[in-house]
Amino acid sequence: RFTPEARSALFVARRAAEAEGRAEIWPEHLLTGVLTVAAASIGPEKAAAVLAQLETPRAPTRGSAPAPEFIPFSTATRQCLVAATERATQRGHRWVRSEHILAALLVDDATEAAKVLVTAG
Fold it and tell me: What is the mean pLDDT of residues 58-76?
């Protein structure tokens, strides 16, 4: 049910987690993916400014092990994707779009991603 743009955001999120050597994809990686994919729509300068505020979570890393073929979503990220799907359904949308993911990132205000979004307005 995810649009190609939303799937691209998930792909970028995976790459961000992989580049940091993370064992899971965190909401902060998801925000990185959404902003990277949507940069042309919201303006590259604004996307870059928000990304500059983003600190990656201090979560367990894989160390020097090579990236696995599959990097799982963290519990918080899974909850965000469920919330995005529910948000799309509540609005009568057949597809989950990037904006649904972005809004769902605000649900758990304890995440760094939500804090950055609130600060960015």
Answer: 70
